[in-house]
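Journal club prep, shared notes

We agreed each person brings one worked example of a sequence with its structure written out as tokens. Mine is DUF2516 family protein. I'm keeping it raw so we can talk through how to read the token line rather than staring at a rendered picture. Sequence first:
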Amino acid sequence: MLMDQFDSIWVLIDIGMLVFAAVACLLALAARSDAYRAADKQTKTFWTVVLGFTVLFDFLVFWGLLGGLMFLQIAGLIATIVFMVDVRPALAEVSGGGRRRGGSSSDGPYGPYNGGR
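Then the structure, token by token:
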């Protein structure tokens, strides 16, 4: 009975890793190629191949077609985390993501900051 619960937890972990890698792969595909160079990161091709193989590997593990190679699954998870934590924010910063449109860099939450004047 305890092993059944343990197996269901692993299924949820496998699904989570697959979805996480798929979202990262789609985000890597959506970014512009020149943004990777501007952010001084690896190329778009590099990240899409690494994350694409991670999605493929996680999919095969989920369906039980490939097993016993957990180190590859962990390596893919690490690559996905690196993309989401390091590369994606750098791409957003270079591409102008996260900034408000139409505002100035000196605008505060209640309007422009005038330096106390």
